[in-house]
Amino acid sequence: MLQSVETMDAPAPAYLSVNQFCVLYAIARSSAYRELAAGRLAAVKRGARTLIARAEGERWAATLPAFRSGVGNGPNRPCGK
Q: What is the per-residue DSSP string for 13-35?
């Protein structure tokens, strides 16, 4: 039976592909590239591959706003209002 990389005793990789980053942080690829374009997330190139340092992902995630219940769009609040 195969084990995932995260469950093995091997250390976590220092860099993540964009796909790995998106899976880890549960965001769409388009959102990741939007964050890169806006300068809120940094990456390096290795040939044609775009790689995001795991530490950079943690820094990016720490800057995200906290969820606050009752704020924003809800079932009784129209979108954009």
A: PSEEEHHHHHHHHT--HHHHHHH
